[in-house]
DNA sequence: CGTTTGGTTGATGTATGTCAATATTAGTGG
DNA sequence: CCACTAATATTGACATACATCAACCAAACG
């Protein structure tokens, strides 16, 4: 089965680099060792030293840091096709935790296999490093959002970014996308209280911008959202720089 | 002159990897092409494609992103010994701007020279990538701070982090350190208004925790600051993981 | 000297948090 | 199939941390 369907990761990377058969095969071989992780139970725990990374094939995960006072800040969400814990492999330690938002399916990648794959196909290595840099750019944008955007703009920006990311792996259409996050997830990611998240969502809905209900985000007025959020997608699609 | 004094970068990396003579020499050779940049004028501009990175040898720089509405968010500060624009070299594009906080001295590093150095001395490459990962961890911690800490704790955390970073390159003693930032810089970095930064500093001073005056930070009660900020330095000194 | 830049302080406004109550829904065991 | 519980969502009343506006001061600077 594996070789006939394209994995989300393959799909994502293919947008930026035309991968050869050999590279596709190497990528495919990283997808042995599929595992299921149940919702809500940490996969990797803050401070734990770990030598494995994962490629997420189905479901969503969030990576977060816990504060001494018990509050948590979600740093990023991982969606199908995303790497998880790439830095843990390089640094041999993880400075935040990973928790599946729902039951998920992920392929465990041992550091040795990853390094072997990199050695075999430098272009693949480049593509994956590109993806990692893109993740970092998202964290920076996230920082800017929390620091300098009000709650409405922050929410709009966040949901637009998700749309763009999901579209890349075929999980969004022109109307919207499935989103399994609770309002508590949104609150922890955006630095808001859950109550205020609810109010912001109502506000956006009443203004005819978007609807988030029953796990589905429906975009009503894309242009107005982009304007409200000050959304500039250029940090997401740095097209072509690494194609050489 | 170059070979008799140790650069801040050398000093920083030496804490984590015992560098050989050859490696020290390679590192030293990256410090040709010294240049002076005047305070306040952007070195690299958002969106500009650039193939050069810099090693900061004297002075402070801030990297920031501008919002469409004119506000700015400072993502990080660079201090002597820090790399500047390492990602620009890898991605061939810069998604934020760099502005010297004061007149600075930096060594320009061409991407070719950097890649050559990496090829010659893998251990050096590892050490520099470690430093880059550490920078990323700082951005994450910064995100957590803005999202989940109140203004006092945020300020305390920020100034403690700076102390730890400066100590590593010999720019802090047990009392405190020189800090050329204005309250406007602090405001843009911490997501606060300049007025409130002033009030927070007064508050910390009146509580006998620290004094920030005339470009000098004096720490009065380190323990109390650590407690207030929920400061856990483990994200800064991931000692040893890469020594192999 | 006037001008600019950075700092300081008070009065007031507002975005967002906190608390509390009530739906709504999904799951769970009987 | 039904009660029971636990999540999640929703809404209002109230509290507060922080922003904004405005004025003033001190030092640096041309």
TrEMBL record, chains A, B:
InterPro entries from the UniProt entry: cNMP-bd_dom (IPR000595), cNMP-bd_dom_sf (IPR018490), HTH_CRP (IPR012318), RmlC-like_jellyroll (IPR014710), WH-like_DNA-bd_sf (IPR036388), WH_DNA-bd_sf (IPR036390)
Pfam families, alphabetized: cNMP_binding (PF00027), HTH_Crp_2 (PF13545)
Keyword Hydrolase: no
Matches recorded under CDD domains: CAP_ED (cd00038)
Domain spans labelled Cyclic nucleotide-binding: 26-90
Entry keyword set: DNA-binding, Kinase, Transcription, Transcription regulation, Transferase
Residue span, HTH crp-type domain: 149-223
Coiled-coil ranges from the UniProt annotation: none
Alphabetical GO biological process terms: regulation of DNA-templated transcription
Gene Ontology molecular function terms on file: DNA binding; kinase activity
Name of this protein: cAMP-binding domain of CRP or a regulatory subunit of cAMP-dependent protein kinases
